[in-house]
Specification:
The protein is mostly helical and 50 residues long. It contains 3 helices and no strands. The radius of gyration is 14 Å and the shape is elongated.
Amino acid sequence: MIDKERAIAEVEALSPVGQVFIESQQYIIETLIEEVENGRFKEFVQNYDD
């Protein structure tokens, strides 16, 4: 488990772990944008909460 402070430090240092954090967040953002553009955002969010 990595706490918030370490995660921020990893991202700022552009370490391999930081890169994984960045890539995972980019994937999530791209997926959400795609769902909004396709009109399925509400369905996506409901399924994600399950």
